[in-house]
Write a sequence for this structure.
């Protein structure tokens, strides 16, 4: 079963090509989201690592973000991101359950209507495989 091996909220995450291959550069990780005002809009990135993804078959990944309250509507919903992975020859000696990859999603001008705890949920092939809460609070009062 695939698992989330890493999850980070940050200011941004940029792919970077290096002599050793492509890497994900995470800039300014966040412990909390602190827009200037709430209600207001705020941009951030979500980065995550997945391990144990079976190679050669199509998978579906969905990431949602909402206020961490029952029946709260999603503020972000990626819809199904369909993909396949191929076996990397550099990982030939690593068991499949420990092989993985990292990806990031830019969340631009997300509207926060209230202070509070929000949560990202990660679904893989329809199964919830991780929930990642983060607190959001405006730095100034309106």
């Amino acid at each position: 079963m695939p698992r989330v091996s890493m999850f980070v909220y940050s200011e941004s995450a940029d792919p970077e090509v290096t002599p050793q291959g492509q890497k994900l550069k995470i800039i300014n990780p966040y412990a909390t989201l602190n827009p200037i005002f709430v209600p207001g809009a705020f941009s951030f990135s979500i980065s995550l690592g997945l391990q144990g993804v079976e190679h050669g078959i199509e998978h579906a990944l969905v990431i949602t973000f909402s206020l961490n309250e029952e029946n709260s509507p999603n503020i972000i919903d990626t819809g199904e991101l369909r993909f396949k992975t191929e076996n990397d020859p550099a990982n030939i000696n690593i068991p499949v359950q420990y092989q993985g990859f990292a990806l990031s999603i830019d969340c631009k001008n997300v509207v926060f209507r209230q202070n509070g705890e929000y949560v990202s949920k990660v679904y893989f092939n329809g199964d919830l495989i991780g929930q990642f809460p983060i607190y959001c609070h405006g730095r100034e009062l309106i």
Remarks:
- The chain has one domain: 3-136.
- The chain has a mean pLDDT of 93.
